[in-house]
Design brief:
This protein has a single domain, classed as Rossmann fold (3-Layer(aba) Sandwich). It starts with a helix and ends with a strand. The chain is α/β, with parallel strands linked by helices and 209 residues long. Strand 2 (81-86), helix 5 (89-97) and strand 3 (103-106) form a beta-alpha-beta unit. The longest helix has 23 residues, at 16-38. The protein has eight helices and eight strands. Bound molecules: S-adenosylmethionine (SAM).
Length: 209
């Protein structure tokens, strides 16, 4: 399978179980593939927004942490209170090897999360909120586990934002006064080598209640 096909292969999963199995199988090669074949830069770009808004002492959840690329970068920047959560135990096992996270948890975004309310100062989610992965309804639980005035920072494809219920969900949460948009980035190529036609934006929200 070519690496481009492998990306499509995880996206074509029919349910969370199949998605987890496919990421489990991909886990050992995921980083090499994404770095070498795609020049993946989602975590690097997102790190700039985390540094802008989140203090180094913050307790941060990396939701859909995968193999821990985001945690590795944040740890290097001085963020030490990091928790990883992911659907795939295989991906989490790879993340654990980095030593960047204090805790690792296998959980599913879109379902009830096994964290108490207001557990985190911030949640970051890179490359996870998208078609066939975590749905827009995931925000309800991410907001519940983030303390008031905490931040939720995530990447999203503009086409997914417009066509897959994210636009409506994000607006509904804002009109209900549950969170407030702080900033949305310009569009950037997240996989400039392998999929130059794919763009993402970084969204920054502040939880209000
Ligand atoms: C494209 S990878 C991104 C991983 C990491 N954030 C990064 O930037 O390298 C997507 C990750 O999201 C996880 N994932 C997909 N759907 C999920 C869900 N509903 N809940 C939790 N994790 C999920 C996958 O297992 C995979 O590790």
């Amino acid at each position: 399978m070519t690496e481009s096909n492998r990306v499509q292969w995880v996206y074509s999963s029919r349910n969370n179980r199949e998605l987890a199995e496919r990421y489990d199988q991909w886990a050992k090669d995921y980083e090499t593939n994404l770095k070498k074949d795609f020049q993946y830069r989602g975590p690097q770009v997102t790190a700039g927004y985390i540094e802008k808004y989140i203090s180094k002492e913050a307790k941060i959840l990396d939701a859909g942490a995968g193999t821990g690329l985001m945690g590795e970068i944040l740890n290097g920047m001085g963020y030490k209170d990091l928790t990883a959560m992911d659907l795939s135990q295989g991906m989490l096992d790879e993340a654990g090897k980095k030593g960047a996270y204090r805790e690792l948890h296998q959980m599913v975004m879109g379902e009830t999360l096994d964290f108490a309310a207001d557990s985190f100062d911030a949640v970051v989610s890179v490359g996870v909120l998208t078609v066939g992965h975590a749905p827009a309804s995931s925000f309800d639980e991410l907001i519940r586990i983030t303390r008031p005035e905490g931040y939720i920072i995530f990447t999203l494809r503009p086409d997914v934002y417009h066509k897959s219920g994210f636009k409506e969900k994000q607006a509904a949460l804002e009109s209900m006064g549950i969170w407030k948009l702080v900033e949305v980035s310009e569009k950037f190529q997240t996989l400039p080598k392998g999929e130059p036609e794919v763009f993402h934006q970084v969204w920054v929200y502040r939880v209000t209640s």
